[in-house]
Amino acid sequence: MSQAAPAGSPRNDPGLDGPRLLARLAELAAVGAEPSGGVSRLAYSAADVAGRDLVASWMAAAGLVVEVDAACNLIGRLEPPPDAGAGPARAKPLVVGSHLDTVVDGGRLDGAYGVVAAVEAVAALTAAGHRWRHPVAVVAFANEEGAGGTDGFDGSRAIAGRPNPLDGTDRHGVSLGRRLDGAGGRSGEQASAAWPGPVAAFLELHIEQGPVLDEAGIPLGVVTGITGRRSLDVVIEGRANHAGTTPMDLRRDALVAAARAILAVEAVAGPGQMVRVATTGTVEVWPDVRNVVPGRARLGVDLRDLDDTALDRAVAHLREVLAGIAAATGTDITVTVDGIQPPAPADEGLMAVLEESAGERGLAHTRLASGAGHDAQVMAALGPMAMLFVPSRHGVSHSPREHTDAAHLVAGAEVLALALARLDQRAG
Q1: What is the DSSP string of 182-233?
Q2: What stretches in the chain show pLDDT beneath 50?
């Protein structure tokens, strides 16, 4: 853990309007507000569009040129003056942002904080007379969360030139193309959302969505990378039979095999094990009747780690262990990898800039990995990326109980502004 700057050390104040940041977060939380205190601003919904329009007005007030691209990303751009040192024709853009959409009855800060703080950071630097050398873009990405059971990251994937299929449908049978067109996008021009070249840096400020910072009492976390993921579909075939007449030694119980498989998944994760975390998140059983020996079971498994090789080793290990379970239980077990997300390491230079900026404000900070996915992992395809976390109380997110102290919210935005100012002084 890096410690706070010593007493008397110089501290640069970016002049960020903390009360306005907090007021705007509260105003945005009212868009899609639920009686529970949570927020439902599902991607492409009327509430999502209303939230996007509200933030667009704040971007315009900050002097940004605002557009909604073909993929429904909200983008506020600021070009440097013609006599800027790096020159707008040569300098790659500095990009900062997150997303505005939520899960059903989610929290008010997840994603939204990063967008509003980015607007406030750029506004503060511009108002303080900062002469931008790089083009700047503040982005609110569309459908990060995966509304309606979709894959998510629609907006960032489109910007990175790897768009999700327009004919892919959500659980309501509505295609992405129709969703885009209904929310102000242009599905027929999807290719135009891809950015033409690399970025100088991408920064994303976010609540942690985990307990590390809150438990340690540390106000800032510099993210070392976003963990990769393997999604496994495990199907166990046994033999259904009468629960009262089938002797125990003659059973081929799919659920017993599934129970052993769940424990095997748990065993590959944790300190000193193969991967950082492993979860069996879904269990389905057939025929799902109390007095019938289960003949079939299906598990949904999620493995995450910063090391792609470790993830592959864990999958291979599980295949071997599950084959042994199948032999011992008289079942057949098949393992299908139905989702691969490679890890996205953060840029060491950008992490150092975030740490230096935290030091300027006298704020303690530590490094940690992100176990959750973020648009930053997609934007890493366009250039160096880094993320900054502020604490989530008790690690809660995607919930009406999601909360971060006001002082931490303001501090994170201030450090983001200082980091942007530092990065803007670099060439390229």
Answers
A1: HTT--GGGGGGGS-SS--SEEEEEEE-SSSHHHHHT-SEEEEEEE-EEEEEE
A2: 1-11, 87-89
